[in-house]
Amino acid sequence: xxxxxxYESRRRRIAEAVCLLADEHGPEGVSMxxxxxxxxxxxxxxxxxxRSKGExxxxxxxxxxxxxxxxxxxxxxxxxxxxxxxxxxxAASEIALLREEHRAEARIWLAFVAQAAVSEPLVGPLRTxxxxxxxxxxxxxxxxxxxAADEGAAPPDPQHEAFTLLALADGLTTHVLIGHLTAExxxxxxHAHLVGLWERLGTTRP
Length: 206
Known about the structure:
By secondary structure, the chain is mostly helical. Helix content is 73%, strand content 0%. The protein is built from 9 helices and no strands. The longest helix is centred in the N-terminal third of the chain and has 26 residues. The N and C termini lie far apart (58 Å).
């Protein structure tokens, strides 16, 4: 009986290999043959999963975005009793990729962002990932504002606040990666912004 192939699992394995190579050489330096060798599968197996290098890179971008989003959701699920403001702070910290164990992921993400500036096909997946993260911020900010409504606070614009917070978190990733800020300094910047946001929401600091 023919062996059943879990193509989705294989696609994720290939995406991990793409990420490792993109971290080493940039997305433009990734080849399907090198990916096959790194993933320890045949070139034919890679080609059966992806019709072209471009399609393979698009999947890898989605894979990294999904990994970040799932990590944020897992952190939120782990503390269901936490306040919306506290949850927002935790989510922002995860998205900023400031911890040492996420440094490679940060390099990969920024490599894809840089490549998207000259490769239009990569723009769509990146926008989709950013939109998903921004929508998460909007939800958490809205919940925090609603919980403070009885205190007479003037509700902020959740979309504007979410856009600002996402841009800050994303920018801090770059500043830490190039050594302009330490991870601790970036955390302080992020925390200071969140304190101001909590004040605008009329909530107390978590």
